Amino acid sequence: MRPILKKQVPEKKIAYSGFAIEPIWLIMAVVTMGWTYTIFHLLNLNHDAGYGHFGPGMGIFDVFNIYLKDNSYLFLANLPICTTFDEMWTINSGLSAFSMWFSMVLAMMVPSLLPFLMSKRPVAKSAWGFLFGYLAVWALCCVVGVSLQYLLYAGGYLNNQMVISSHWFSAVIFFTIGIYQFTQVKAAACINRKRVIDRAINSSFGHGMAWKYGTQYGMTCVIGCCPLMLSMFAFGLMNVVAMAGLTILMYIETNSSVVERHTRNIGITAIALGVFSLFFYDQLF
User: Fold this and answer.
1) C-alpha closest to that of 125 among 223, 20, 228, 17
2) pLDDT digits (tens, 9 = 90+) for 237-269
3) Torsion sign, CA atoms 269, 270, 272, 273
């Protein structure tokens, strides 16, 4: 008697629309766009005085002056680059400033999404929905940044290199950031940020829910990280060295399992920078 052979059904493989690779390339593409546009801003603002005027640490880029001496980057003139505001507010200057702020968000905040997207492994549409929801919230924050930039420049606190020109005002910014790190608002933002991520990871969602989770996560990140981004006014809005440092700090704070420790360390560092701004401004900046 022959044994009954069961027909073997080929095992179905779950397709993620190539998302095993897509989150890396999606994030890398967006971040590259942010950094590239920021560098274009910096090149357009270059002048004979060197890059050191754009904030602490920027003097290391003076070596590139020899390559920019003959203004070989004329194509930059056709880009909506923000230099400084004129005395009269215009739509063009506002949009240019917004593009600068939004490129900073792409460069500094989007990298922190990579661990979540890789662990969630949603389909490509959900990844885009989450990212767009996240960026929509930060776009509103950029509008606030543009408004502050205009007010500070109009009041004479922001110089032509987009760096705070007053040592006491820089100190106020750092002290505000430092104190904020120890507040209940900051602590609640960190807790809510983790809750949103946990809910998103443990649930299956489509494009609509991805947008919802993206906006919720964006709100918690804005509340938690936006005050820290204000330090760019003191360091210099075109200070890519400070941008790189803040990107690392916010990535660690967003994805670390010991958020409280990093939050306290950032607060102490900000207060220390405030003290240095008061008494050693020329040496620091």
Assistant:
1) 17
2) 888 889 999 999 888 888 877 888 888 999 999
3) positive
